[in-house]
Amino acid sequence: MSKLLLNLRHVPDDEADDVRAFLDAHRIAWYETKPGPLGISQGAIWVKHDSDIAKAKRLMAAYQGERRTRVRAEHAAARRAGSAETFASLLRERPGWVLLRVLGIVLLLALMALPGYLLWR
Fold first, then answer.
1. What pLDDT digit, counting tens, does each position of 16-62 carry?
2. Cα–Cα dist 80/90, whole Å
3. Do 2 and 12 belong to one domain?
4. How far apart are alpha carbons 58 and 9 in whole angstroms?
5. Residue 66 CA to chain centroid, in angstroms?
6. DSSP secondary structure code for residue 30 in this structure
7. Same structural domain for residues 79 and 101?
8. Are 70 and 117 in a shared domain?
């Protein structure tokens, strides 16, 4: 019976490609389900045989540990170089996008506070 190895929701393409590559390199049978048309399901990578799941999970844990270290080092280097994305840089580059989201957050907070305000009056 197939077992889920990686849910592809919010997974960068390079990470999914790396997972596919190490599964192929270690001759682990796998298949991928594609995202659903409505965006409810984002797809996944599945291991076909139960006998391979322990090996695949060990490989996945080792890969994620290595990736975590590498990505954190890259982010720290970008912060030191001043090229890491910050709220201020995002506001300068895409002010409409940021302001629309901030307005949405404020509107949601107001809607959540409205019942309490109406009861208090």
1. 999 999 999 999 999 999 988 887 888 999 999 999 999 999 999 99
2. 18
3. yes
4. 21
5. 17
6. E
7. no
8. no
The pLDDT, as a whole number, for residue 94 is 93
Angle (nearest 5°) at CA 62 between 18 and 48: 60
- Per the structure block, which two tokens stand in for 41? 């399901």
Contact yes or no for 26/62 (Cβ under 8 A): no
Task: Please name the residue ranges forming H helices in the chain.
Answer: 13-25, 50-81, 87-93, 95-120
**33 and 77 share one domain:** yes
Cβ atoms < 10 Å from Cβ of 42: 14
CA–CA separation, 49 and 118 (whole Å) = 58
Residue with tokens 């077992």: 3
CA separation for the pair 60, 58 (Å, rounded): 5
Instruction: State which residues form the domain around 32.
Output: 1-84
